[in-house]
Write a structure and sequence with these properties.
With about 475 residues, this protein is mainly beta. Helices cover about 5% and strands about 55% of the residues. It has three helices and 37 strands. The strands form eight sheets. Strands 1, 3, 34, 35, 36 and 37 form a six-stranded mixed beta sheet that branches. Strand 30 (about 390-395) and strand 31 (about 395-405) form a beta hairpin. The two termini are about 35 Å apart. Mean pLDDT is about 80; it is low at about 1-30, about 35-40 and about 460-465.
Length: about 475
């Protein structure tokens, strides 16, 4: 598959409340790195109208060749870094940007990491200030690095979790996943402004009999580690890089034995309030929702709430977002799946589809108040461009997604949900640039104060050779 990045930008204005269809114009945008697929996996907002995004090429085995691009809402690319092979993650750091990478993942992310490298980049120029190796893996085990920031994306720690996998398991995906879910050690890495590293090994004795789900940190440097067992969800608090657990909070849950569990961990009303939503994949009967408040040492959870959530009832729904708004909790989910169509040459073609989005508004105990549904349906030949993007601004939730008003004709759908009145206004963006044959990557939208930039993947295939253009599209609120 050949993917090209076209240096074009489509400019669109959102309408007043009574408008139904939007028009568009085109402008030229210069300075974008060509030949790179716009995968905005990491976005660092450095102001209300500028940000730094990560873009690059991902290989079939997960290796990521990335560059950082600083862009503003006036369509100007301020700088672009050189590409970093084996890119891991990036964060704001001491009024600059820090990038972590490993040469051991230059070709394949299944390879075992031996060394982690850090590079400090000047926020104003994009130039490298200094770089050095900051961590060496101590055991012959597969490790998973995890970036920890506060809610403003400022670097706090790099967490290195040692799994139970000591060699690559070729013939059993189930055994490999079981080994990867296991945790033998967690190191926490902090850095000085000169990139001098300090690490500590956490006491994780409680993780020996449960499954690690993820970690989150706050602006005070506290670390919160989330795990689950068959009958509970637990969050443990570590402070100031001390190895021992300070506080542990637990809530009852019910998961089948050996079930694959996924979800979202986020901050609540305050940094020291942790919201957790865990769900059994492929089994809608198991879901856990809870809010852990480490100031009051209380856990808030409605055990009946999961029975009311659309996520509980529909196995095709995937979790998109998990937000705290005033005294409400917003859970966003949408339909996603795969359809197969038999073509005339007797070859099976896979089509990806994305359907309705559910904006489930709950009270602070996860009891459903109202489920607002954004009606849509889109299909595309590749698993890119279908998932929706959203942003909460003031008292409104903005959604950008794809829909098909006609057969094989894809258009952009926008929706605005009033989070006080819980009402919906939506409409279509007529996109003549794609001529109905493209899809926005809503989940990778760059959101600014009154504008948004979102990638648009256009299928330019004429023969069986796959060819796509990637166009940045601007939407003004």
């Amino acid at each position: 598959m050949k993917i090209l990045l076209a240096a074009l930008l489509v400019v669109i204005s959102l309408p007043p409340a009574d408008a139904q269809t939007l028009k568009e114009t085109s402008e030229q945008i210069e300075g974008l790195p060509l030949g790179m697929y716009g995968a905005f996996n990491d976005v660092l907002y450095t102001g209300t109208n500028e940000c730094i995004y990560v873009t690059g090429k991902e290989s079939i085995v997960g290796a990521f060749d990335a560059a950082l691009v600083k862009v503003n809402s006036d369509l100007k690319v301020l700088w672009t870094t050189e590409r970093t092979e084996g890119f891991l993650c990036a964060a704001k750091f001491a009024n600059n940007i820090i990038v972590f990478s490993t040469e051991d993942w230059k070709k394949n992310t299944a390879d075992f990491i031996k060394t982690i490298h850090a590079k400090l980049i000047d926020l104003q120029t994009g130039k490298t200030i200094r770089e050095k190796d900051v961590y060496k893996v101590s055991d012959r085990l597969y490790v998973q690095p995890h970036l920890l920031t506060d809610s403003a994306a400022n670097f706090q720690y790099l967490e290195i979790r040692y799994t139970k996998q000591d060699k690559f398991i070729y013939f059993s995906a189930a055994k490999r996943e079981e080994a990867l879910r296991g945790t033998t050690k967690i190191d926490l890495l902090s850095l000085t402004d000169n990139l001098d590293a300090k690490s500590v090994t956490l006491d994780i004795s409680s993780l020996k009999t449960v499954t690690y789900d993820g970690s989150i940190s706050d602006s005070k440097g506290d670390l919160f580690v989330v795990s689950h067992s068959m009958n509970s969800v637990m969050v443990e608090q570590y402070q100031n890089m001390q190895p021992a657990v300070v506080t542990g909070l637990k809530v009852k849950a019910s998961f089948p034995e050996d079930a694959e569990v996924g979800g979202i961990i986020s901050h609540g009303k305050k940094d020291d309030e942790i919201m957790v939503l865990l769900r059994t994949r492929g089994d809608v009967s198991s879901i856990a929702t809870a809010r852990f408040n480490f100031e009051t040492k209380q856990v808030y959870s409605d055990v009946t709430a999961g029975k009311q959530l659309p996520l509980k009832q529909d196995p095709d729904l995937i979790l998109v977002g998990f937000e705290y708004y005033k005294d409400k909790i917003i859970i966003l989910s949408e339909k996603f799946g795969i359809r197969q169509a038999l073509m005339t040459n007797n070859k099976t073609t896979v089509r990806y589809f994305c359907g309705d989005m559910h904006v489930s508004v709950c009270d602070s105990n996860f009891t459903l108040i109202k489920d607002v549904v954004v009606k849509k349906l889109a299909e595309f030949n590749i698993d890119v461009g279908l998932r929706s993007g959203y942003k909460i601004s003031g008292d409104q939730l903005f959604v950008l997604s794809n829909t098909m008003p006609g057969a094989l004709h894809i258009e952009i759908k926008y929706a605005v949900v009033d989070l006080n009145a819980l009402t919906l206004h939506d409409g279509m963006i007529e996109n003549t640039k794609a001529k109905g044959n493209g899809a926005i990557v809503g989940s990778e939208t760059l959101w600014f104060n009154k504008t948004a930039l979102t990638p648009l993947i256009i299928d330019r295939s004429i023969t069986s050779t796959r060819k796509f253009d990637n166009i940045l599209q601007k939407i003004e609120f």
